[in-house]
Design goal:
Layout: H1 6-19, E1 24-25, E2 34-36, E3 41-46, E4 52-57, E5 60-65, E6 71-76, E7 82-90, E8 94-110, H2 112-115, H3 124-129, E9 133-140, E10 157-160, H4 162-165, H5 170-183, E11 187-193, H6 205-209, H7 217-252, H8 276-282, E12 292-296, H9 306-325, E13 331-334, H10 353-369, E14 373-376, H11 392-406, E15 418-425, E16 428-434, E17 440-441, E18 449-452, E19 458-460, E20 462-466, E21 469-473, E22 482-485, E23 495-496, E24 506-508
Parallel strand pairs: 2-8, 8-11, 8-12, 9-11, 12-13, 13-14
Antiparallel strand pairs: 1-3, 3-6, 4-5, 4-7, 7-8, 9-10, 15-16, 16-21, 17-23, 18-19, 18-22, 20-21, 22-24
Helix pairs in contact: 5-11, 9-10
Length: 511
C-alpha cells in the first residue's frame, strides 16, 4: 500500500473539517437564558444536513435530524419552574448552555419609549444601583433592518445586575421586576425595540401584502427611496443652509441654537422600511417560547390618516406574530403619554392635536376588542416638553398590573376608569364607567371634559361625579350631542378610581 505524502493527508483532513459544519444553536440560546415554563420548549439551530442532534435539559431529551438546508428543531417536553440547568446539544460537536432557568418569558417591543434605558429614568442613580435580581434575565436584540426574514440576530442573555440593567429598557425592567416579586418565578425579558419606528416596519411582509389597505406601504416606500436624492439636495441647499444661518445668528446673539432639521427619509433610514424590523428583529426569535408581549409604540404612527388606520394595522401585526410563534399569547400595549402643546393654545403646534388623540383612541379600541389584550394608560405621566418622559416606573408597573390580573389571575385592580356609554338627558350628557369604584378627581376639581352641540364646537364643560358616572354639561349648550375627555396632546384630565389609576382619553360618539 502506497502511503500519501504527509502534506496531502493534512490537506485532506483540513478540507474534511471545513466541509463539516459544527452543531450551532439559534441566537436566543445562550448562557443565562430563560425557558418558558409548562409548555413545550422549542430549541433550534443548524448542523450538517442529515445529522442527528440531541438536546437535553433537566433529564428530558429530544432528537431531530437536520434537513437539507442544515436546519433542525426539537421540542422539549414542558418543564416546571426551576433551574439553574445546563442544556446540552450534541451531534458532531457538543454545546453546553449554562445557568438556564425555567419561568416566564416576555417579548418587549416598540419604539424609543420602550428602548428608553433605566439609566435615564427619574431617580436613575438609585434605581440602577438596586437593579440586582438574579432570577430576572435580560436579552436585548441588536438593531438590524433587513429586506428578507433573518434566522440570526445579535444578543445574549444577561443576569439582571446594575451593569446589565443600566442601558436596558426601563419599562421592560419595571414590568419584569414586578412580576418577579409578585409571582416568585424567573422572568426573562427579550427587548426588540428601535426609536422612531412605525408599526408597518414591525409587521411581516406577508401580513401587509394580504391587506388591501396596507399593501400600498411598499410602493410608497419605493417612491420615498426614489425621491430621496432630490429631497436630500433640497435638505442641503435649503433646509440646512437656512438652519446654519439661523444657528450662526443665535450664537452671535447669545441665544439658544435652534434644533437642526432632520434629514429626509430614504435608504439611510432603513428602520422605517415596511417589514424590515420584523425581518431583522422579530423573525430571528421565532418560535421561542413566550408568555406574552408588551408593546410601547405609536408616536411614529400619530400622523395624518395613519392614526386612525392604526386600529386596523396593529391587530393584523399581532395576528401575524401569534401565527408565526404558534402561540396565542397576551399582547398588552401602552397608550401614548401626554406630550406637546395643544392646538387650541398654539395653532402652529408641529404635533397636531387630532392625530395624537385619534392614535390614543385607536390604541384603546385595539385593547378593548383584541382578545388577550390590555391597555396601560400613561396620559398622566408624560412630559409636555419631552417625547421621552422619564417616569417609566408607573408605565412598567401598570403593565404588570394588567398581566397579573388578566394572565395570572391575581385579584388586583389593573385599569383606571373606562368610559363605556353616554346617555343624554336634556342638557346633561351622562358618561358611564367601568373600573369606577371610588371614582374621584385627583388634586382639585374634575378637569378635562369638553362638550359640543350640533355646531361641533367643543367648549369647556362642568363635570360632576355621580357614583360610577360623570354628568357633563355647559350652560351655553342646551342640546349636547358630543363629549370629549382628555382630548389633546397634553390634556388636563384628572379622573381616577380608588386605585389611583387614571381614566384614558375618550370621545362620544366614537368614530
Amino acid at each position: 500500500m502506497v502511503s500519501q505524502p504527509w502534506f496531502l493527508t493534512l490537506g485532506l483532513a483540513l478540507l474534511a473539517t471545513q466541509a463539516s459544519a459544527a452543531v450551532a444553536l439559534a441566537s436566543p440560546f445562550t448562557d443565562h437564558a430563560v425557558f418558558q415554563r409548562e409548555r413545550p420548549v422549542p430549541v433550534w439551530g443548524t448542523a450538517d444536513a442529515g445529522e442527528t442532534v440531541t438536546v437535553s435539559c433537566a433529564g428530558i431529551s429530544a432528537k431531530a435530524v437536520a434537513g437539507a438546508d442544515g436546519k433542525w428543531k426539537v421540542e422539549l417536553a414542558p418543564l416546571p419552574v426551576g433551574g439553574p440547568y445546563d442544556v446540552t446539544v450534541s451531534g458532531s460537536s457538543t454545546i453546553v448552555v449554562k445557568n438556564v432557568l425555567v419561568g416566564d418569558v416576555w417579548l418587549c417591543s416598540g419604539q424609543s419609549n420602550m428602548a428608553f434605558g433605566l439609566n435615564r429614568v427619574v431617580n436613575k442613580t438609585q434605581e440602577v444601583a438596586q437593579a440586582n435580581h438574579p432570577t430576572l434575565r435580560l436579552f436585548k436584540v441588536g438593531l438590524v433592518a433587513k429586506e428578507q426574514p433573518q434566522s440570526t440576530c445579535e444578543g445574549t442573555w444577561q443576569i439582571c445586575t446594575p451593569k446589565s440593567a443600566a442601558g436596558f429598557s426601563a419599562v421592560a425592567y419595571y414590568f419584569g421586576r414586578e412580576l418577579t416579586k409578585e409571582l416568585n418565578v424567573p422572568i426573562g425579558l427579550m427587548v426588540s425595540a428601535w426609536g422612531g419606528t412605525g408599526a408597518e416596519s414591525w409587521t411581516s411582509q406577508s401580513i401587509l401584502e394580504a391587506s388591501a389597505e396596507f399593501r400600498a406601504v411598499f410602493p410608497a416606500w419605493d417612491k420615498t427611496v426614489a425621491d430621496s436624492p432630490k429631497a436630500m439636495e433640497r435638505y442641503r441647499t435649503v433646509d440646512l443652509a437656512k438652519w446654519e444661518k439661523e444657528a450662526a445668528a443665535a450664537k452671535a446673539a447669545g441665544q439658544p441654537v435652534p434644533k437642526k432639521p432632520r434629514e429626509p427619509n430614504g435608504p439611510n433610514t432603513p428602520h422605517l422600511r415596511p417589514a424590515a424590523l420584523y425581518n431583522g428583529m422579530i423573525a430571528p426569535l421565532v418560535p421561542y417560547g413566550l408568555r406574552g408581549v408588551i408593546w410601547y409604540q405609536g408616536e411614529a404612527n400619530a400622523t395624518g390618516t395613519r392614526a386612525e388606520a392604526y386600529r386596523r394595522l396593529l391587530p393584523q401585526m399581532v395576528a401575524g406574530w401569534r401565527a408565526d410563534f404558534g402561540n396565542d399569547f397576551p399582547f398588552h400595549l401602552v397608550q401614548l403619554a401626554n406630550f406637546g402643546l395643544d392646538q387650541v393654545k398654539v395653532p402652529s403646534d408641529p404635533w397636531p392635536v387630532v392625530p395624537w388623540a385619534v392614535l390614543r383612541e385607536s390604541q384603546a379600541l385595539v385593547a378593548a376588542t383584541m382578545p388577550k389584550s390590555g391597555l396601560a394608560v400613561a396620559i398622566d405621566v408624560g412630559d409636555p416638553n419631552d417625547i421621552h418622559p422619564a417616569n417609566k416606573q408607573a408605565v412598567g408597573q401598570r403593565l404588570a398590573l394588567i398581566a397579573l390580573a388578566k394572565d395570572y389571575g391575581k385579584d388586583v385592580e389593573f385599569s383606571g376608569p373606562v368610559a363605556k356609554a353616554m346617555i343624554i338627558t336634556g342638557t346633561i350628557a351622562e358618561v358611564h364607567f367601568e373600573h369606577a369604584q371610588g371614582l374621584s378627581a385627583k388634586e382639585g376639581d374634575l378637569q378635562g371634559f369638553t362638550i359640543a352641540g350640533e355646531d361641533g364646537r367643543f367648549r369647556p364643560a362642568q363635570a360632576v361625579i355621580r357614583g360610577a358616572t360623570v354628568q357633563v354639561s355647559c350652560p351655553e349648550i342646551p342640546n349636547p350631542i358630543s363629549v370629549r375627555y382628555a382630548w389633546g396632546n397634553s390634556p388636563s384630565g384628572n379622573l381616577v378610581n380608588q386605585a389611583g389609576l387614571p381614566a384614558g382619553p375618550f370621545r362620544f360618539p366614537r368614530k
